[in-house]
Amino acid sequence: MLQKILEIGKSYKIAVMGFLLIFCLLATYYFHFILKIEIIFTHFFYVPIILASLWWSRKGIVVAVFLASLLLVSHALRPFETPSGVT
To answer: Is 70 exposed, middle or buried (0-12, 13-18, 19+ CB in 10 A)?
Structure first.
C-alpha cells in the first residue's frame, strides 16, 4: 500500500515537472520569437528549478542546466539587436 502511494507521488512529480518545463519552453519561444523581447519572462523558470531542488536534491540541478541551456540556444538562434551606445 505504501509502495503504491510512493509510486503515485513519484509519477505526479514527474508530470508536474514535465508540464512546467513545457510551459517554460513555450514561454521562451513566445517571448523571444513572437514578441521579440527578452525581459522578465525568465522569472517563470524559478518555479521548476526550486521544485526540482526540493523534490530531487542534487539531481534537480538537471532542470536548472536544461533551462540555462534553453536560454543559450534561444539566444544563439535569434540574436537580439543590442544598442552599441555609439551614435
So the answer is: middle
pTM to 2 decimal places:
0.80
- Closest of 36, 40, 32 to residue 72, by C-alpha: 32
Q: Distance (Å, rounded) from C-alpha 26 to C-alpha 30? A: 6
Torsion of CA 32, 29, 15, 69, to 10 degrees: -60
Domain spans in the chain, listed from the N-terminal domain onward: 2-77
Instruction: Give the tens place of pLDDT for each residue, 49-81.
Output: 999 999 999 999 999 999 999 988 988 887 656
